[in-house]
Amino acid sequence: MSNALSIGKSALNAAQIGIATVGHNIANASTPGYNRQVMVQAAAQAQNFGYGYVGQGTNVVGIQRVFNETLSKQVINATATSNASNAYYSNISQVNGLLSDSTAGLNPVITSFFSAVSAAAANPSDTATRQTLISSAQSMVNRFNAVNTQLDQMRESINTQITSSVDAINSYSAQIATLNDTITKAVNSTGNMPNDLMDQRDQLVAKLSEQIKTTVIKQDDGSYNVFAGTGMPLVVGTQQYSLYTRASDTDPTRVEVAYGNAASPKILSTDTISGGTLGGVLQFRSETLDAVQNQVGQLAITLATQFNAQQTQGYDLNSVVGTDFFSVGSPTAISSAYNTDPTKTASASIVDASLLTSSDYTVKYNSGQYTITRLNDKSIMWQGTSLPATVDGMQIDVNTSTPAEGDSYLIKPTQYAAGKLALAFTNVDQLALAGSATTGPSDNENGLKLAALQNGANVRVAGSSTNRTYAQAFAQMVSAVGTKTNELSITSKADATALENATSAMQSESGVNLDEEATDLLRYQQAYQAAGKMMQIASQLFEVLLQLGQ
């Protein structure tokens, strides 16, 4: 009878554990990252009684979580890809809205300005038309300033997004390292996997992949080694490695991502960081925001510089040679923070606006010579032992005859130009519409030339062998941003669908199905009742034997 009682007890114990496991699944059906658990049973070692082997009941081998590593990796990859495209799309949509707005964009005010120039040229002696020209010019300047301000605000928003994302990455990786330690200790001490802790760790990995592309390599001791981007270690066993944010070496207003020694982490290139919100935001800044702000600045410089050049060829109402109508800021030159002598600076000036590009440039001194590189296509534009040098309509120089090895400078010809644009005067008499100092007030020779600038091939556009008009250059910029926005709209939706499908596939295997759990609950309940009945019968039989013995 003791054998029957023992078998019944093992069955009762298994049923109890099964009910507890199912109950745990039901309780966590809505818990993020929870993977359902199942009880694993095995028959107890049978005993040989001579006439054959008699079973000894059941053993509970363990509680196993249903987790598919392949599906999990698919979800992690899809999450990083989806968040990257979504972050890029949400940011570029703002730029697209800014540029394409028919009332807030640049094209209407440029058109209005040249219409006023034409009107003034048609009636050069009329003060009212001259005043209208001044007002239209001021409106155009204000619009350039406003667009640049909004782009600067987007740039500040990107800085905030980068900082927030890096903070989240460091928090998740620190928690993963802590769980690695706890899980490893639990496995070593009991030999069993702490399923709920492992779920928590996998959920943290999933959250980490929302911020950056994440790769996980499982170790023999149950710990995870986690790598980000193109292979930067974030977690190795119980050791966590942080990302940092720091100002760019050549632009203190630009937040960059750095890695390495906490005292002096090295700035990472955009190519090193991919996927997730952080990757998407950095890609948007480097591919779209920088390019658009530079192009807007290029348009402002080119229009203003060429208008000034023609204005100074004419004569005003007082028969005085015209002066610059627009105030145009000089290109910005920034010394690297790593330069040996910070007093050694670079400078740049525009010599031919029609040759100006929307790219930034670097000037580096190595092995006895300077190298000037155009950054948008990585082209080496000039090399020599001494400066100045003229590159793409711009003269570049340094203020030293004794450069140090490794000295580096960043030249930004156009990024800040739209924000610096202003009117140099507002006196209507100073508009130089006349072509000669001796002709009468009806002389409009120079006014007609100023108006003709609207349709001239004045702006250099990347990828084109011929220059474009101001309107064409702006339209091409708007079109490029619009095309990229539409592309990302489609891509982000496709990536979101891929993530949804990957998540559904994993949930169908690892998620809690309440209908299935209810069925299992009834099954274990019946097993529990049957085991109890078995023990009751065994007990009754034992009582009969005792009575027979008396």
Automatic annotation (TrEMBL):
InterPro entries recorded: Flag_bb_rod_N (IPR001444), Flg_bb/hook_C_dom (IPR010930), FlgK (IPR002371), FlgK_D2-like (IPR049119), FlgK_helical (IPR053927)
Protein location: Bacterial flagellum; Secreted
Positions of the Flagellar basal-body/hook protein C-terminal domain: 506-548
Domain Flagellar hook-associated protein FlgK helical: 92-326
Record-annotated Flagellar hook-associated protein 1 D2-like domain positions: 335-413
Every Flagellar basal body rod protein N-terminal domain range: 7-34
Keywords, comma-separated and alphabetical: Bacterial flagellum, Cell projection, Cilium, Flagellum, Secreted
Similarity remark: Belongs to the flagella basal body rod proteins family.
Name this protein carries in UniProt: Flagellar hook-associated protein 1
Underlying gene: flgK
